[in-house]
Amino acid sequence: MIRALVLAAGESRRMGQPKMLLPFRDTTIIAAVAGTALASSADSVHIVLGARAEDIRAAVEGLPVAFVMNAAYRLGMLTSIQAGVRAMPAETRAVLLMLGDQPEIPAETLDRVIDAWQRSRSGFALPIIGGKRGHPLLIDMRHRDELLALSPESGMRPLLAAHADEILHVPVESDAVLRDLDTPDDYRRLTARNEGGI
Q: Is 197 contained in some domain?
């Protein structure tokens, strides 16, 4: 089983308002990301909650997603990854880590990463375009214990550095894998690219 893990626990400090709840096309940022995950070949979709948890639940009401609560979300993104991985059922073979603020990534891109991993069974797989690594990051659950042992301050870098030879780079066509939303300017650019749809 390959499970999509959408990280949506952050406080959106640089945005100045909850970015997951901002309008995007005919829905919200988080609902668009969840919808893309559901349209992919992932076997299930789980959303990691923290800040504004009830509002984010409400934003995806009606979608067949599961929720994981990260009580330690203020300590950084790694705690959300760890909370999500810890909650995955035993039969999970891999998790696809998706950022909750990347609504333009198409489901086809997710499938390309998943398909490439299934053929290679590498420790990790991620999209690459123009020589740059993007998201989402797929992690084989054989690295579960090592991931859970990481310090929140370190982030994922030590794990990826220790297994650099296991990282599969998957060429993709959408540069949306390089873009997330941190600031009001990022959101203005997003809306400009999708004008008429929000």
A: no
Who contacts 184 (Cβ-Cβ below 8 Å, separation ≥6)? 15, 16
- Helices then strands (H, E): number in the chain? 7, 10
Provide the residue range defining the domain that includes 61: 2-192
What CATH number corresponds to the domain at position 89? 3.90.550.10
Task: Reply yes or no: is the peptide bond before residue 136 cis, omega within 30 of 0.
Answer: yes
CA distance 60 to 135: 21
Q: Where are the beta strands (DSSP E) in the chain?
A: 2-8, 23-24, 27-28, 44-49, 66-69, 94-99, 124-129, 132-133, 137-140, 167-171
**Full-model pTM:** 0.93
Dihedral pair phi/psi, residue 46, rounded to 5°: -125, 135
Q: Would you call 51 helix, strand, or coil by DSSP?
A: coil
In this model, does residue 128 exceed pLDDT 80? Answer: yes
Q: Are 102 and 148 in contact (CB under 8 A)?
A: no
Q: Is the pLDDT of residue 198 over 70?
A: no
Number of domains in the chain: 1
